[in-house]
Design brief:
Chains A, B, C, D: Pathway: Purine metabolism; IMP biosynthesis via de novo pathway; formate from 10-formyl-5,6,7,8-tetrahydrofolate: step 1/1. Four copies of one chain form a homotetramer. Chain A is an alpha/beta fold and 289 residues long. The first copy, chain A, is 34% helix and 29% strand. Chain A has two domains: 89 residues, Alpha-Beta Plaits (2-Layer Sandwich); 194 residues, Formyl transferase, N-terminal domain (Rossmann fold), CATH 3.40.50.170. Chain A has a seven-stranded mixed beta sheet. Chain A has a four-stranded antiparallel beta sheet with strand order 2-3-1-4, covered by helices on one side. Chain A has a two-stranded antiparallel ribbon with strand order 12-13. In chain A, strand 5, helix 3 and strand 6 form a beta-alpha-beta unit. The first copy, chain A, is globular and about 60 Å long.
Chain lengths: 289, 289, 289, 289
């Protein structure tokens, strides 16, 4: 991890139809450029007719200055040959992230605190909230807090304001228990992935009030799910999940308290992995290297 | 645990509307009878208007001989006063259990093996299967194996045979990956609780093929659920659940293998707890002491 | 939990040689006083010659005003008869807790944050630190921060200052990654239990540098342990432990980061349970109800 | 997993000082031979002066017939250039494994059962035991059971018999709760790795009676550890560990029962990973890909 935050560390993430020689071609090219592979993960959904995914982290002296050259070589030598989708990132340049919250503080504060202690390789662009409650908490971390009220009548205007703040300004939007549904229009225009933390072990208990539903159903474990947001509510690709054991003696308030611990842990892992380019979307699922 | 398998150990399980003085009345009566409380667990769904549950394990010299007397005293002194449902069991008399299986062996063998080593306080009445495949495995444990084929045309006859074998003969029926749906009629007539192991973390992935569904949805944990069987498929009160971490790299066959370990662990815990009178049904949920 | 924070809720914790009729005598007395038992947990180390422990939570109208009377009755009617050690607490009066910290913030901030959101039934008397680094963080929670520098030459003076601040003022001292060893003299004089979080799965890796030791030994799980402090370093009764999975690829810095999450979770549970009178010391171990 | 059991699948495991171009050289060579990489894992203990490890699974048509050629090319083109230790295995040829047991059945039966259902890619050469108790259980799986009694006086003769049975005949020896200590002499001569399951979360509770020690120390989790056996008892490289939560109410017999579940799960994972060439020894630790 630390290694990846030094200068001259590149991450190349690729996806293409599985075929012979991809690993060799990629590692060859990196060696030819003078790079040294630090870690390499790959996965294929099947040897024949499958989809191939690879994340390669490599040290390349002078990366920042040579970036255009490297991208050109990847495009001309690999991308066309293998019908490859690819992304090259400079590990020393953290992703810019906007955090959305409402009134609940546990996920937001945990992300801010982990970021402050250097555990999350990101830069926090701002916190946007439809409520003013958490402003002081956020400012204490030296992060800009923007209050954009949302109600039934101004939803479109609020999203326009969101887009003005975010578009071409952030690499990721994280909904840290933001209690508003984003419109398909917003999702299309924001041009950055949007991640959400859902307070249940999806696909169980979709929609609102999952802890009450969990109590009613009498489950013995409750959980949380970090996923990318799509137009289909609670149906987006799952990045990370976890659960905690509960008992008949725990009421909904207690489930909510236990759940908060799972939510903040799950969301922080998902954000970290995304910011390290470990998560690749594949249809309605994810590859997490 | 061991303590409870000695002679003269009684278990009293009660349920009644919550009200003042229940614990005192029960423990008083036990003291008056000359008994000594070993463990006592209680739970109330709410102080006012709630339901109260208690499991009391106590040592009572001469229990077997005094049983009618004790039951009479409980009925006359406690049951009417507190509108109480209650059950008294002699811990030295293990429950008689019938195991149902089909072709899959992991849950069945694990129960047989745990029983052989003395970990499950039950007596196995027989194993009933709609397939002959596991006969030899079962007989090796000294347990009777009864093959009752089931097909579209003989389902009623098969269930009649089941009832003939089970009625007034067993205290519990355990479906150890039995791949047939029991009719409401059977459930009503069998006069013993029926427990099932479902190969998913309910209420996620109800119905058939849960591991395929889990793969398609891209969950990061898979699980299993032991529950009492009701007329509503996969909706009965949950007794125990657990999960195991999986990754994008695990195919359905691998999920099935991992899941088998969770299934057998969850089912064996549920069976053990039931046989120790730790599980109380409460509407669509359970209390597990 | 919530229930226990209402007025008129008492907790009676007892320990005595196991013998007939304790549960009945206690519940009888509570019923006689007009109380209603909410939860009751008990444990015996053995039916014959064992030690018996019980925690009883009960509702008693007018508890605060009747406290002296109740204590008198317990002493005269129960304590002498059963050679009982006992403690009665009013659940509405949270314990006063002093937190000790050094430079590391994760355990301290987690306790402060959980306390702010109402999850920890305690009152924070103050934070005492041998370093000034965390002062601002602590004050933001409205908690007094007291800097008591400790070095080789002033250790006795520092502990005298600690005692002046704590004696007869707090019910519990929590070492939230406080990096100084307390003297036997301090432990004897402080007259309050002292709890510590050790950053390993004790008894593995006692002493300093546990994450380095864990790396060197190549363990596949790392953990943390909350325990009461005794004169024997890292040997006090364990209250709570947990672990997290790691791999060969995690360096010591990464183990330390993972470990921090386990440490703060384990310590917060231990503090919560202690403040709810759930933890009873028994020789070098604990009973946790 | 399944993929790796088809014909023409090779596994190449290498270890060498970390340096530029290893991944490229290996993948190049595989491509040149006409192979296709299926999975590739690598790890370096440090970019400068570190040790590099890689496991590469690749499809190579005609592997069995071309094996000598492939080994020659690896030796001449890779091994000398990178000062590499390496091993090439044909995934379709399962490792030959000898299982050692005494009287306790849970680890042994679990391995036999998992093997029968096709979950463990190995061939069981025989079961060797110093007690006859488990003979019938073993034979039922169609596996040869060899009783080699061991007592104080015949230990050398017993080990000579072990060596006669094992030498040049097996690829792995698994001690499935074998209750005898193997001599350094045996370990040196057997010329196959020896794996043991220790019934504690090492390095806690080394030596005999770990569950009693765990009870005495009052730990809240107990565990098990699979490790390679070295001359230093309980000090060999750890392959896998896991834990389970226990409470003050569990006596040593109950800890032993809970522990048995952890032991068999941990050992079966370690055996599986070893047989898939996923485990590389590195000093006193392991890399597990």
């Amino acid at each position: 991890m630390n290694t990846e935050q030094r200068p001259d560390i590149a991450r190349l993430v690729i996806a293409c139809p599985d075929q012979h020689g991809i690993v060799a071609a990629v590692s060859d090219l990196i060696a030819e450029l003078g790079g040294n592979i630090i870690t390499l993960d790959q996965y294929s959904t099947g040897v024949e007719g499958g989809q191939f995914f690879q994340r390669t982290v490599f040290h390349l002296p002078g990366l920042a200055a040579r970036r255009t050259e490297v991208e050109h070589v990847i495009e001309s030598r690999l991308a066309s040959r293998f019908s490859m989708q690819w992304q090259l990132t400079d590990a020393s340049r953290p992703k810019r992230v906007a955090l959305f919250a409402s009134k609940t503080d546990h996920c937001l504060l945990d992300l801010l605190w982990r970021h402050r202690r250097g555990d999350l390789p990101m830069q926090i662009a701002c916190v946007i909230s439809n409520h003013p409650d958490l402003e002081e908490d956020v400012r204490r971390f030296g992060v800009e807090f923007i209050h954009v009220p949302v109600d039934r009548d101004n939803k479109a205007a609020a999203e326009a304001e969101h887009l003005r703040l975010l578009k071409d300004n952030v690499d990721l939007v994280v909904l840290a228990r933001y209690m508003q549904i984003l419109s398909p229009d917003f999702l299309e225009q924001v041009r950055a992935p949007v991640m959400n933390i859902h307070h249940s072990f999806l696909p169980a208990f979709v929609g609102a009030g999952p802890y009450q539903k969990a109590k009613d159903r009498g489950v013995k474990l409750i959980g949380a799910t970090a996923h990318y947001v799509t137009e289909d509510l609670d149906e987006g690709p799952i990045i990370e999940q976890d659960v905690i054991r509960v008992s008949h003696a725990d009421d909904v308030a207690q489930l909510t308290r236990y759940g908060a611990d799972v939510e903040r842990a799950v969301l922080s892992r998902a954000v970290k992995w995304h910011c390290e380019d470990r998560v690749i979307r594949h249809g309605s699922t994810t590859i997490v290297f």
